[in-house]
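Step 1: inspect the first sequence and its tokens.
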Amino acid sequence: MKNYKFSLQSVLEVRDNEEKNVLEDFVLAQNNLDKEGRKKEELQRDLELCLEKKSSIKNIQELMMENLYKIDLEDKIKFQDMVIKEKKIELEEVRKKLQMAQKDKKIIEKLKEKDLDEYKAEIEKKSQKEIDEFAVLRFKTS
């Protein structure tokens, strides 16, 4: 009896590679989103420090400089919010691609399982047939 070979094995391998590639893209997108989130947190900490420092400033020129710095930080935080929003959209798109790749791979895996079950059933059927023939031959000779 020959060994089992799935006729769509190459398709399964392609789907597996596609899933791995999209998973790498997903991890990269998640890391980018996390990085942008950390940037925003850093800007917010700088803004808090700026606001705390502002209350202790007595020189009008320093106060104006701190106010400009505060405005700059607020603008950077708003920009960072937009970047984070874009990164979330990108992440969601990659998540959908990953789900599709996993679904496509799962379909082929199910086909392989079904095919393997059919192969095993056929082997069992042939084996049973051989056993039956052997039993008939034995019965005839006795």
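Step 2: inspect the second sequence and its tokens, then contrast the two.
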Amino acid sequence: MKRLNKIREIMKENFLDAFLINSPYNKFYLANLYSNSGYLLITRNNQYALVDSRYYVQVKENAKEFNVIEISKERTIFDFLNEVIKKESIKKIGIEGDNLTYDNYMKLAENVKVVFLSISLDSLRAIKTSEEIEKIRTAAQIADKAYKHILSFVKEGMTEKQVERELVRYIKECNGDKESFDIIVASGERGALPHGKASEKIIKRGEFVTIDFGVNYNNYCSDMTRTFLLGEAYNKEMIKIYEIVKKAQWEAVKSVKEGITASYLDSIARNIIEKEGYGKNFGHNLGHGVGILVHEYPIIGKGNDIFLEAGMIITIEPGIYIEGLGGVRIEDDVLVTEEGFEVLTNSDRELISVKG
């Protein structure tokens, strides 16, 4: 019921009589319905799950707080919405405008005679419950195991794709459901690509290899990045870059606490990198929230003056990327606690040289 109360607080703040939810992630969060199909309708005094026959029994079993309504060609979602609007004197309904297609919105507007107002629910899932934290902690622990395994697996002459496939296989062996996003494996000069998804490039001795991956466990995600070296480094600048990123990352991690702003946390890492002359080579935000989605509210970056709160889980992931040379990124999942912080991903942050 606490989660439904969050929605009703948002309704109250925005003078809404109801909220219509279609995001699969928010439907899962509120009613354990993980599907692109169906809607949730939250009114001042009631809550409805509007689904077709495929999901009716499942939702009745899993969402006891909801009145489950079966939608069909004979009784469409528009029919039901108009019934409830009349019954509960609803005049204004909030919608997830950033998640509702133009076509679906137009159909709603044509068939349902009420005022619709687009309201962001980005912050709805920001504070994690103890149950959610445990799922993400488990996902992070599996990621740590997978990274340790891949260090013993990778060999000179392998392709980045081979490393990716082994990570996916091992994640499932360790009871992870799947990877939480397309895995990044970027070696050598490709390390300069912050989102360099695994390719058929052959990994060579002397190259730095950046691996950015996560684990999906019970519909919750982890997200971590490590950069390691295959053999010995031939380029001293890359070693220097690694140490700068490591310092910037850990100084930011140590600064995580309730009450600090996301923009100030970003500046801690960014200032260190800028003072070393690599500011233009760190072009992305310091981090982001993580949860049901691998990228969630809040953004940890410039200009975002939101205050961190206990229960948030965020990533800290500074990087330096130089075209034609390579790149380094180190990323951890960090829980904001009342006492300060807890790092959930704990793979070694020192530069590891793999014999391969």
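Step 3: confirm your contrast with the notes below.
Residues 285 and 301 are 5 Å apart (CA to CA). The two ends are 53 Å apart (CA to CA).
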